[in-house]
Amino acid sequence: MGDRVLVCGLGGGMDHSLGRLKDLGLELLVATDRPTDRARAAADHLLVADPNDTAAVLAALDAAGITTLDGVFSLGADNPPVISALAQRFGCPGLPVATALDCTLKDRRLDLLRAAGLPMPRHRAADGITEALAALAEIGLPAVIKPCDQSGSVGVVKVESADRARDLADQALRLSPSGRVVIEEYLEGTEHTLAAFMVDGRLHPFGFADREYGRKEEFAPYFFEGGDTLPSVLSPAQIDEVADTVRRGAVALGLDPAVINTDILRTRDGRVIPLEITCRLTGARIATEVMRLATGVDPLPNVVRLALGRAFVPEELVPTRRRAVVQRFVPVDGGVVRRVGDLQDARREPGVHDVFWGLDLRPGMVLPRYSGGADVLAGVIASAPGLPAAEEIARRALASLPVDIDGAGTAGGELARGEEPPPAQVPVRTEKPVASTRSRRTRQ
């Protein structure tokens, strides 16, 4: 058996990549609190533990008699501090815990990037409702409130009026395990994901996607996080500008060597603002399937090499094809599930890579109203030689979802009536949030 690696945490749908890791000849340990059939099939050792809790993972390893590891990483889970703590505990390659916290906690990340001279939104951190309201008054409306230690859009809200400020700030504070939030000025523009490796001071991009925000404020005050679309609408020169900003940010945060995930805003006046730069693989199947379908580049062998301290192979990041790929999701929007069918028919259409449920749907299930990026009913990944064809394939797949929902809002109501969903359905990140290496509250 090969090197023993621990995959600590699976982002939404990222269990699809476990088989690929197994093909690399690894002894595969998987720690997750949401075990799936794919995880059970691929793992040599499946550890049922909260991957955002270092103590829980260590206890699970101890109970399984695991005393050595050669490497540790996550598949799209936003838990870099836990990964660093485990790597330190077992003597594996990895970034320091302090570095992982710097790029994970929003207030620390914003301050470090601003100190490095990168263009950042005006922002203030707050530890309670009084400070939060004072920060809103200083920043001005509209503004965005974000829990410092959550991810996947959990608790992120837009404040447009003073009469809602207290309630929305209190909500964000309650969703933060540390009771700390960041208030940012609201900026408009396009958002993009650049996935890359940072090794020896050089950034090695392997994927660039546009985030689809056509229905961004449909569920205000929450943001309806857009899809992922390749190729980008940006020009090569504009993409290079984004890459340079990411490189500068990675240097400022000390992310080297590391795999890099980002959320980049390009404002209407052309500024490139790093909303997120962190040391993890991009989740929601984006880096491992969406981008790979478009370019042919598989980042997983280099992810494993970095985790094991082996030599990085940049030649593997050269694109071998160019296809249009979209990922689109249908949001959960209330109602009661009356019927759920088999997705096989929707998967058979040429160009459909996968159609999937975001929830374990069953008749009689009461669905919540949309309240953030993790609320997904279903999704599709589709590809074609050109973008219009890929969009149309995705639209038809979502229109054929075998589900009836009574009493839903906009999205659910359309499906219940058998109408076709609008073309700009939403992709979301379902990886669980993380704030520290200690036990913490998680969203239920």
Fold blueprint:
Blueprint: E1 4-10, H1 18-23, E2 27-32, H2 37-42, E3 45-48, H3 54-63, E4 71-75, H4 80-90, H5 97-104, H6 106-115, E5 123-126, H7 129-139, E6 143-147, E7 157-159, H8 165-175, E8 181-185, E9 189-199, E10 202-211, E11 228-230, H9 236-253, E12 258-267, E13 272-278, H10 286-295, H11 300-308, E14 324-331, E15 336-340, H12 344-347, E16 352-357, E17 376-384, H13 387-399, E18 403-406, H14 410-416
Parallel strand pairs: 1-2, 1-4, 2-3
Antiparallel strand pairs: 5-8, 6-7, 6-8, 9-10, 9-12, 10-11, 11-14, 12-13, 14-17, 15-18, 16-17
Helix pairs in contact: 4-5, 5-6, 7-8
Describe the structure.
The chain has 444 residues and is of the alpha+beta class. 30% of the residues lie in helices and 25% in strands. The chain contains 14 helices and 18 strands. The protein has an 8-stranded antiparallel beta sheet. Strand 2, helix 2 and strand 3 (45-48) form a beta-alpha-beta unit. Helix 5 crosses helix 6 (106-115) and helix 7 crosses helix 8. The chain is globular. Residues 410-444 have low confidence and may be disordered.
